[in-house]
Design goal:
The protein has 296 residues and is of the alpha+beta class. It is built from four helices and 15 strands. The protein is globular, with a radius of gyration of 20 Å. One of its GO terms (biological process) is cell wall biogenesis.
Length: 296
Amino acid sequence: MVARAWVLLLGVVLVTAAAKSATAAPLRRPVAVPFGRNYVPTWAFDHIKYYNGGSQIELYLDKYTGTGFQSKGNYLFGHFSMDIKLVPGDSAGTVTAFYLSSQNSEHDEIDFEFLGNRSGQPYILQTNVFTGGQGNREQRIYLWFDPTIAFHTYSVLWNLYQIVFFVDDVPIRVFKNCKELGVRFPFYQPMKIYSSLWNADDWATRGGLEKTDWSKAPFVAAYRSFHVDGCEASVEARFCATQGLRWWDQKEFQDLDSFQYRRLLEIRQKYTIYNYCTDRSRYPTMPPECIRDHDI
């Protein structure tokens, strides 16, 4: 009888959780726009190629240079996403990056960095968050698919309450606003959006043990769906004029819902290979933001 009651109770809990996740607001579907509407190349213009009327581009890396692009505007909070197909084959030593960064010495930054691999080895996705010039908050995961075969969507949701990294709408990392714990959060510095393909064989693959094989060059990463839905601001702006009015600023986006939390836990358990929060050689005392995160 007790066992049956426990099963019934468990069923109620699961149904309640399912109902909550079903009613939670989904992420808005990004609208694909041509590259030139929101972005401009930043260097080595001859290493960028345009396709389909500018709705898709490719970045090229050879032994002479890599290349990259940046947004035309600066943004203070928002939702930003891009479809990326990573460098195929032997990409050891290369880094494909998609990130947001402010333009000052105490910079804020939100990073996706895709670390190249030797053929047959999995790609590593490294994320990082800088606040007030302080970084060293790396987390690394293996992806659950081959990111070189097809395009996948990589997104950042950034509002007053949290920064969430998504891969194909699956949350892989959350950085909560912990200002009451003395942890700085990106509040006041607008950021540009950047992407780049560059050589980092001094650290990117197995800590620099695997060097870039330039006989495999050029290395090519492809991009499309250059989505920006943020509060555009000047570099000196200290607040968002539409604060509280945009979809990504509403209550349902101030935290993950129960379904998203379960997906996040699955990523941590199955795919995480490094988390600065648990690295006692670097941090004998757990960083304060990790204490809260540890309860997820």
